[in-house]
Recover the amino acids of this structure.
C-alpha cells in the first residue's frame, strides 16, 4: 500500500459508522434539495414561480412529496414476477449509495472533542475509480429487471433501451477517464486529487476527456435529452410504468443519487476534487479543516445545474440518433484522444516537450473533433429495390413504419364490404 493510502483502514469502528451515516444523510438531503432546485430553476427558465409555499422558499415541498409518495397505495400488477418486481428497486438504489464509499470529501481532519484524526473519506482503494464504475453498472440491473418483471410491453422496452444505452455510454465514460489515469499515475481517488494539486486541474490539459465525460454522464444517468428509457411520449413511463408508492420512490431516489455520484466523480477527476478554486486557493487555510467540503459541494452543485439546464432547454433525441452519437462520435473521439495523450506523455518522459505546443495542439484537436461531430453524415442515394412496392404497413394487423430503403405503396388496397340487406331490399 502506498504512503497516500496509509491513512485508511485504521479508524475506530465508531468513526467508520459515523462517516457512513453522514454520507447517507448528505445524499438523502441532497436528493430532496436537488428536486426542489430543479423545479425552481426550470420554473425560472419558463417564467413560472415553482414551489414556494411549504417551508422557506418552498424547501419542504420535496419532503412533503416524498412522504405522500411513500404512503400511497402500493399496486402490484397481476402478471408481474413478484420477487423480482420487489427486489429490482432495491438493486437500483443500493449501488448508488455504495459508490460514495471511495469519494473524497476533504483532507485529514481532527474530530472535535476527541483525539482522533481521520480523512473525510470513508475508504479508498488503489482502483477506486473502477469501483465507482462497477457500482454504477450494477445499478442498471435494477432498471432492466424492473422493466422485465412488470409484465408490461412498455416497461420491457424501457428496460431494454436502458441496457443498450448504459453499455454504449459506459464505454465512452471509461475511455474518457483513461487519460486522467495517465496523468495522475494512479486510479486511487485521493491520489488523483493530490496529483491535481501538484500540476493543475485536469479539465484544462485534458479538455476533450472532460467534454466526452460530460456527455457520457448525462447518457449514463438517463437524464434529458438522453432520457430514452423513460420517454413518456413513446413508452408511457418506461421501465417504471407499473411501479407506484415506495418502489417508484426508490427508482426516483436512485436517479438523483446517481446524478450526484457522476457529478462528484467529474469534480474529483477534472476539477481538483475538494481543493479550493482560484482565488480562494490563495488563502492558506482554504484546503484545511472542514472548508474543503464546502468547495467540493459547490463544484458538485455546478454540475447539477448543468443537468437541470439541459433538461430545461434541449428536446429529447431520437433513439437511433442517440445510439449513433455514442458509438460513432464519442467512442472514436475518446480513442483518438487516448492515443494523442499517450504519445505526448511518452515524448515528455523521453526528452521533454514544450507545454505551450501541447496546449495548442490539444486545442486544435478539440476544434477538429467538434467540427467532425457537427458535420452531417453523408448518405448515398438510395436505389429502389424490388421489395419497395411489396411493403405492407398493415400486413401484421398493426400499422408499422417502413424501414430505411423501403417505401409505402402508392395506393393502399381497398377492402370491399358486401352491402347489408334490409327488409326493403328483400321485399
Amino acid at each position: 500500500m502506498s504512503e497516500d493510502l496509509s491513512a485508511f483502514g485504521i479508524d475506530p469502528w465508531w468513526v467508520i459508522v459515523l462517516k457512513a451515516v453522514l454520507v447517507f444523510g448528505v445524499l438523502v438531503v441532497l436528493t430532496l434539495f436537488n428536486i426542489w432546485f430543479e423545479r425552481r430553476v426550470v420554473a425560472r427558465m419558463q417564467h413560472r414561480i415553482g414551489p414556494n409555499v411549504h417551508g422557506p422558499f418552498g424547501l419542504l415541498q420535496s419532503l412533503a412529496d416524498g412522504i405522500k409518495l411513500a404512503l400511497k397505495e402500493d399496486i402490484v400488477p397481476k402478471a408481474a414476477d413478484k420477487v423480482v418486481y420487489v427486489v429490482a428497486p432495491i438493486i437500483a438504489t443500493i449501488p448508488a449509495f455504495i459508490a460514495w464509499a471511495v469519494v473524497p470529501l476533504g483532507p485529514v481532519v481532527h474530530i472535535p472533542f476527541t483525539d482522533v484524526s481521520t480523512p473525510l473519506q470513508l475508504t479508498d482503494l488503489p482502483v477506486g475509480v473502477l469501483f465507482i464504475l462497477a457500482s454504477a453498472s450494477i445499478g442498471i440491473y435494477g432498471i432492466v429487471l424492473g422493466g422485465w418483471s412488470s409484465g408490461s410491453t412498455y416497461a420491457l422496452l424501457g428496460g431494454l433501451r436502458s441496457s443498450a444505452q448504459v453499455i454504449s455510454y459506459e464505454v465512452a465514460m471509461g475511455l474518457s477517464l483513461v487519460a486522467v489515469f495517465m496523468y495522475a499515475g494512479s486510479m486511487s481517488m485521493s491520489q488523483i486529487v493530490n496529483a491535481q494539486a501538484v500540476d493543475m486541474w485536469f479539465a484544462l490539459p485534458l479538455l476533450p476527456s472532460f467534454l466526452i465525460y460530460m456527455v457520457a454522464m448525462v447518457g449514463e444517468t438517463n437524464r434529458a435529452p438522453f432520457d430514452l428509457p423513460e420517454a413518456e411520449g413513446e413508452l408511457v413511463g418506461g421501465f417504471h410504468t407499473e411501479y407506484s408508492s415506495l418502489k417508484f420512490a426508490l427508482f426516483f431516489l436512485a436517479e438523483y443519487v446517481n446524478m450526484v455520484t457522476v457529478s462528484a466523480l467529474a469534480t474529483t477527476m477534472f476539477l481538483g476534487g475538494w481543493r479550493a478554486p482560484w482565488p480562494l486557493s490563495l488563502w492558506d487555510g482554504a484546503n484545511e479543516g472542514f472548508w474543503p467540503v464546502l468547495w467540493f459541494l459547490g463544484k458538485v452543485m455546478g454540475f447539477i445545474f448543468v443537468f437541470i439546464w439541459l433538461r430545461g432547454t434541449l428536446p429529447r433525441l431520437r433513439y437511433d440518433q442517440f445510439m449513433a452519437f455514442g458509438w460513432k462520435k464519442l467512442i472514436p473521439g475518446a480513442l483518438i484522444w487516448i492515443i494523442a495523450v499517450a504519445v505526448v506523455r511518452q515524448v515528455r518522459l523521453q526528452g521533454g516537450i514544450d507545454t505551450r505546443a501541447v496546449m495548442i495542439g490539444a486545442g486544435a484537436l478539440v476544434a477538429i473533433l467538434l467540427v467532425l461531430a457537427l458535420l452531417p453524415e453523408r448518405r448515398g442515394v438510395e436505389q429502389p429495390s424490388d421489395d419497395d412496392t411489396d411493403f405492407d404497413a398493415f400486413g401484421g394487423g398493426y400499422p408499422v413504419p417502413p424501414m430505411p430503403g423501403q417505401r409505402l405503396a402508392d395506393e393502399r388496397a381497398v377492402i370491399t364490404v358486401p352491402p347489408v340487406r334490409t327488409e326493403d331490399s328483400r321485399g
User: Anything to note?
Assistant: Residues 411-417 have pLDDT under 50 and may be disordered. Residues 8-278+293-374 form one domain. The chain has one domain: 8-278+293-374.
